[in-house]
Predict the 3D structure of the following.
Amino acid sequence: MLPPQLVLPRTIGGDAVALREREWLVTNGLGGYASGTVLGVPTRRHHGILVPNLDAPRGRHVALPRLDDCVEAGGGSVRLAGAELGDGRPEVEAHLHLREFRLDGVTPVWTFEVDGRVIERALLMPQGRNAVCVRWRLLDGPACRLRLRVYAGGRRQDAPLHLDEHPPGRLEPAADGDARLWRADSGIAVRMQVLAQDAAFEEAPRLERDVLLRVERERGYEHREHMHSPGEWRLTLAPGRDAAFVAQCGDQDGEGDAALPSPEELFEAERSRVAALLAAEGLAGADETERRLVLAADAFVVEPAGRRETGQGRARTVIAGYPWFGDWGRDTMIALEGLALCTGRHAEARGILRTFARYIRDGLLPNLFPEGEREALYHTVDATFWYFHAIERYVAHSGDLSLVAELYPVLADVIERHRQGTRFGIGVDPQDALVRAAAEGLQLTWMDAKVDDWVVTPRRGKPVEIQALWYNALRLMAGWGRALGAPGADAHDALAERVRTSFEARFWSPARGHLLDVVDGPDGDDASLRPNQVFALSLTHPVLDAAHRRAVLDAVARHLLTPFGLRTLAPHEPGYRPRYEGSLRERDAAYHQGTVWPWLLGHFVDAWLRVHGRDERARALLQALPAHLAEHGLGSVSEVFDAQPPHCAGGCIAQAWSVAELLRAWQATRGGDRDG
């Protein structure tokens, strides 16, 4: 099966702005990545051709921020990659010579035409290796000269930008061959080599001052960096003679991993890997959009750096978003079905669920593992209940109840810890059996924006989706308990019935025709129209009475539904923000105050199918998706969109639960009903 091809329209080939705003991403299965703009200029602090996720020093490091290629032909030279200088002038001429850009599977491929020569550039990261390979081919025309200037760094991606005129490391010969070794001051080492018949390296240091990182400026961050190049390679690019740049991060000698295979073997291995992903069980009838989403999903399932080997085998987790998110418990459990189960990767899903079980503390699943850290943070009320949901979806897809048997004691303890009360004011109110959560200065639900000491949407009290997830977890425990012959099933059912009765009495608002968002908050009940109520009818065991489901669905559709997802607040509510833009404080003020989140569309589709049954209109809810795959983060789905048309994309260029839930919804709308 040929991999899907995503080809940018020829009409934007000469548009430097359009090419600068479209970003590519490749990943290595370890949380590392390479990313940049189609134009070939970095616009983010995170951009680089090699950004490995390392065990030591821990975290993602921008090892090689740039590799500038320049073609010399016809008595002149053309720069195909470079930077945007502080005065806004781009160094590159790529847009004037770009004939085509495409994703061949997940491999970015540029085709340039320079003075009668057709030159192809392609880039990949070998899976399971902190390495990169960039290959050039002369497809047509006479031989020409190629100059490759590498820029070397080494800062962790969240560290301050480098503004020192001294290089952030040193270059020296590698232990063997004609490779070069870059030893960064941060402690990483990169082995670099150009493989070509007549390649010669010239140690010619260059300092490029005040490189402009345009997107960082737009987002209100520091946005100028001094970039250092230790030198460049010169070579001849001739018909039938490929050239390749290879770089690999290892230990302090740059030799920690085994030697890389040849470029030909690396590209063939990548083609085989992509073919295997698309040949997974259940994907035989996939259309082009579904196949593209399957490949997008692959980027997020990784072995976590520093936590790979455990007593129970290789650890697995989910990167919540590229380029800056790490692994979050909530995001992982929400995204698990779409990323791993809808793509036939049941063993990896099982591995993820087992990995997270080892990190449960006081009945709570980790909220996140901070960048470069092994210790988790636990300030979340919903991630733990999403864990039950993820396990149920694993069983539904795989038929494997043995994992439930293994985890059942852990899950039973989670329920009991919540009944007794655990950290952050999280616990069951004995009066109504609903879960409350309140901790001053902390954001405990998925609406978790916080700037300094300002929690934008605290939602302290009893949030609506927490009750839906709590009810679902209790019903699941009752069913699993009976299947396993474990005690307590009747007690779980009885508690669930109390939750259902209290929920109906406390959350349904006849006057508004929808559910309240939070009850028993510090200032009373919050009736704001938000999307959180959709989970009351989308989960396997819906807590919302059937008599009110259509009204809730209609209210959400009327005020929150957009072509790209659900608004986080209705436009008529106080505090509504139509745009996600500006400084960090301005963006966080809008993050859950109107901003559209694509992942919510998956549960809206579930709710739609539950209310309407098989309905052609459900697939129509997703019709903006295929075009978006050729915008912003190419081949993937963005984190958020503006609440108002034209719904510009923002946040991360590739978000795990955006991809996962839209893939799941795309498959769900092939046909079929949800019981309920």
